[in-house]
Write a structure and sequence with these properties.
By secondary structure, the chain is α/β, with parallel strands linked by helices. It has a domain of 169 residues: Alpha/Beta hydrolase fold, catalytic domain (Rossmann fold, 3-Layer(aba) Sandwich), CATH 3.40.50.1820. Helix content is 29%, strand content 16%. Helix 3 links the parallel strand 3 and strand 4.
């Protein structure tokens, strides 16, 4: 409030002095009088000696802002949906294929009689004979037989799986074909194939070095090998379990490519097949 206002003027005889009148010295405050005004702002800035100052709280770092994720183009979203649909379709097709394969297993109710030739490196006029004429002729002499190449192991196993377990399995192979039929017998001797029985396994001068032990699922084994070609045969064979497999080894003085053409060898093979399948064989030409 302004100092020249009537309320703020000193009093004389209980009455306020007129506005603008000179204040007498007697009414002026003495030096001993204390100023009632307190500078609160100055007092607030003075620290208290008895109260310790508290440490300031550490500043919390601000979190980085999350970048905005880019939105996928419409084409990418559509392509992802197509890929997912194709994946589901492929899975469905695979399940159907397995179901069909399972349904076909054991559907063929006749013996599996399989002949396997060796490497076809020589010309032969007979399509069934290939370069090993004797293998083709023996196949033609057995009703219901099939002939395969030495590199068709998967096809041979597939055909055997289609054959009903009540019907016999016969495997005959020459040279590399002998290796193949031995490998087929080994694979069938597994839990995966329910230890499928091979009634007769015939190897004619198999050229590998791991064919000498015949698996337990083979009932009868006939092994023909030449004594002249030390690098084209693996010698005599033995049964892994003698109580389950009968093994017959025939040592011949004939060369590797002559064994399947020999009438004596063909007779032994046809006789062995006829014991398993009476009446199936015809006289080999």
């Amino acid at each position: 409030m302004p100092l020249n206002s009537p309320v703020s003027q000193p009093l004389k005889n209980g009455k306020a002095l007129p506005v603008g009148a000179k204040v007498p010295d007697a009414l002026k405050p003495t030096s001993a009088a204390k100023d009632y005004k307190v500078d609160l702002s100055e007092a607030a800035r003075q620290p208290t000696t008895n109260t310790p100052s508290l440490p300031s709280a550490p500043s919390v770092p601000s979190l980085p802002s999350t970048p905005d994720l880019p939105s996928l183009p419409k084409e990418a979203v559509e392509q992802a949906a197509k890929d997912k649909a194709q994946e589901k379709a492929a899975e469905k097709a695979e399940k159907l294929a397995k179901a069909e394969e399972s349904a076909k297993a054991g559907s063929v109710k006749k013996p599996a009689i399989i002949f396997v030739s060796g490497l076809q490196w020589m010309y032969s006029p007979s399509k069934s004979e290939g370069s090993y004429a004797g293998v083709g002729r023996m196949a033609e002499a057995v009703d219901g037989s099939r002939i395969y190449g030495w590199d068709q192991k998967d096809e041979i196993i597939s055909q055997i799986k289609k054959t009903h377990s009540d019907f016999p399995v016969i495997l005959v192979g020459h040279s590399l074909g002998g290796d193949t039929v031995k490998e087929v017998a080994d694979e069938l001797d597994s839990l995966e194939h329910n230890f499928r029985k091979v009634d007769l396994l015939v190897t004619i001068d198999a050229v590998g070095f791991g064919n000498d032990i015949i698996p337990q699922n083979v009932k009868q084994h006939l092994n023909v090998f030449g004594e002249n070609d030390m690098f084209l045969n693996d010698g005599p064979h033995v049964a892994r379990r003698f109580e389950k497999t009968q093994v017959q080894n025939i040592l011949s003085p004939l060369d590797h490519t002559e064994l399947d053409d020999s009438k004596e060898i063909q007779f032994e093979i046809m006789e062995a097949i006829n014991k398993v399948l009476p009446g199936r064989t015809k006289e080999a030409k």
